[in-house]
Amino acid sequence: MPLYEYQCSGCDERFEALQRIGDDGKDLTCPACGKRKPNKVFSTFAAGSAAHGAPQGAAPAAPHSCQSGGFG
Ligand SMILES: [Zn+2]
Fold first, then answer.
1. Model confidence, pTM
2. Which residue ranges make up each domain of the chain?
3. Could you say which of 5, 6, 27, 62 has the lowest number of CB atoms within 10 Å?
């Protein structure tokens, strides 16, 4: 069985639990406070990455033509 990570909606406790595929963990309870229906936590690398934006201040690429010659 796969191991999923859950976060309690009451005390933000994070814990892992073995669940069957397709089980959403509604029957789980928080080991810290006993609150039911913890939120499933997805891979940490997928969350929070939005905080990193593209570096600002990058100069736009100027249209630079490298035409040489021109004098037939
Ligand atoms: Zn809790």
1. 0.55
2. 1-43
3. 62
Q: How far is the CA of 4 from the centre of ligand 1 (A)?
A: 16
Using the mean position of ligand 1's atoms as its centre, give its distance from the Cα of residue 38 in Å: 8
Q: How many degrees, rounded to 5, is the angle at CA 60 between CA 56 and CA 66?
A: 155
Distance CA 72, CA 25 (A): 77
CA 23 to chain centre: 21
Compute the distance from residue 10 Cα to the ligand 1 centre, in Å.
Answer: 5
Tokens in use for 66? 């490298």
From CA 67, how far away is CA 58, in angstroms rounded? 25
Q: 64 C-alpha vs ligand 1 centroid, how far in Å?
A: 60
